[in-house]
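Need residues for this backbone.
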């Protein structure tokens, strides 16, 4: 039997854990997706967002930041009626705002990947946690990232959201030491 992190006991967490979580991600469109999804998750369980992931994909133009940045009030009102996503005005407005800021970062750094991975010196941090309760909610790096993102105009990017983004995109490898995805 394959041993996994405790939180990945059943679907949709199982597939997400096995195929995505903790794997280094460098594609800007995927990084934008996780930025939006992590912001949407604030105050909710991750499984709630995973179950709506396809809804988000459709609602936010396949996570095309160029398109999302141009969403207008009519599109916002339509999103507020879309039951396939979390219908929270602040989170929807945040996704649109963050798309605009994301494009500015791409313009400044060439890619969002170059910018965001600079917080970990462009290589994953490999942690050695034994159990889920050992994992931090945030770190000094996620606090620094949060401050910089906020300074650049992003929102829904607190230190806990930033740490979750780091975990999701493989900037940190927080698979517990007994998990088959753990790497020494």
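Answer:
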């Amino acid at each position: 039997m394959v041993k996994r992190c405790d939180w990945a006991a059943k679907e949709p967490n199982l597939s997400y854990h096995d195929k995505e979580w903790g794997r280094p991600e460098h594609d800007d469109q995927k990084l934008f997706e996780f930025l939006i999804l992590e912001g949407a998750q604030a105050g909710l369980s991750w499984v709630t967002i995973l179950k709506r992931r396809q809804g988000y994909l459709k609602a936010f133009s396949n996570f095309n930041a160029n398109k999302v940045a141009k969403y207008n009030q009519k599109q916002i009102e339509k999103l507020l009626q879309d039951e396939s996503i979390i219908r929270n005005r602040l989170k929807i407005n945040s996704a649109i705002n963050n798309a605009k800021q994301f494009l500015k970062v791409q313009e400044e750094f060439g890619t969002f990947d170059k910018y965001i991975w600079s917080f970990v010196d462009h290589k994953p941090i490999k942690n050695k946690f034994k159990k889920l309760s050992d994992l931090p909610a945030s770190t000094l790096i996620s606090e620094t990232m949060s401050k910089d993102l906020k300074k650049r105009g992003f929102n829904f990017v607190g230190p806990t959201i930033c740490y979750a983004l780091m975990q999701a995109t493989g900037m940190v490898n927080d698979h517990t030491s007994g998990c088959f995805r753990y790497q020494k």
